[in-house]
Amino acid sequence: MSLKEKKPRTLLDDIDAGEDQEKDLSQTDAPSPLGGSDLKERSFGEGKRFRDRIPINHQYTVISFYVIVTVLLIFILVRIGTNLDHIALWVGTGLKFLRVIFVPLGLGYAIAYLLAPSVNFHKRQLEKMSFYQKRGKNALGISIAITYIVAALLIILFMTFLISAFLHEVTMVSFDTVTQFLNGMSASLNNVYSQLQNWLTQMNISSDALNNVAETISTWVGGLASTAGASMSTALTHITGYLANGLFALVFSIYFLSDEAGLKRYWRKVVKAVLGRRGYKVLMTAIRDADNVFSGYIRGQLLDAIFMAVVVSIALLLIDVKFAVIIGLLTGIGNLIPYVGPVVGYGFTAAVCLLSQDYRKLIIAIVVLFIIQTIDGNVINPKFLSHAIKVHPVLVIVSLLIGSAVGGFGGMILAVPLAALLKTWFDRGIASLSEKRLGPEED
Fold this sequence. Notes:
- The structure is a single chain.
- By secondary structure, this protein is mainly alpha-helical.
- Helix content is 86%, strand content 0%.
- The protein is built from 14 helices and no strands.
- Helix 10 (260-319) packs antiparallel against helix 14 (393-438).
- The relative contact order is 0.05.
């Protein structure tokens, strides 16, 4: 048997053999009972059933999110409670730093806001002159200078007159008169106290309650005197800080007035970019309401206070009441706060007349003050406040109490215009809500 030589396999032979093997496999292999497509569907179905084993419920997801957030908030609150002293120290330091910045800034804005009408008036009058019309120059700078010069001259004139009147009145009151009045008042109080004790003894009533009242009054008077002394000493020690705040406030006010147009233009862009057009309109409406209320109320109250200070001073000078100018000034300052001006005027007038033991002048002065207050309350004050929002007396009293508790004297001055502003916003919101639900009102 002869052996045949094998020919070497080439690449074409390998390819042909692979194709023949694939054909044989396709012919000999038994078909799958499920088929190729059925196998794919089976594997897809098994994957789908696996995902269905972990259902995703949107409601449970939201509940889980709220639980996690609640736990985090509780943890944060617990940490805040355990470190409350350190947090209070940090907050106090931050507020003190902010106060250093914002107190002169706020005062400067207030000064600029009060002087803006005068600056605009002088600017309009100067720009009517041929000098500015021919050259087309802006008269804002010279208008600001004129306004501040006039304001400074008025303040200097007023303070000079006030100090000279005070010194004149002090020299007119002798030390013997003051001592005699205080001794007489002390003797009168002792007589009243002794008489009350005798009445209580005659009626077999214990005088312990009367003693407690006397001790309470004496303690209150002593505490009031010590508080006044402490406040005066504190004010004297902080006089440099007050002067620095006043100086920076003056500088800020000049910048606010000189760059008013640029500041408005810049902040309009910022507000539009942050809040959008709709938010910008809402904010501008709120700002216009605030401007109308504050410009109508505060400027009106200032004019009314000046009027009362001048008229009361002249009236008391004609009656020859001592410290007439000082009483008039205090009455005008008190008139900045509703219902306080009359109390200040009557109280100080009565004290001065009793001190000088001139009861005839006391009666005349009380009558004259009543006439002045009546004219002011019914004619002058409504005229000055014609553009301000009317506020109910109950709301005025409540706002004064809140303002006094929060900000003292300054809070009482700002309490009423803030209440009027809130009332304006509340009325505007009610009108808008009513229009949405009920439709526009028919005339």
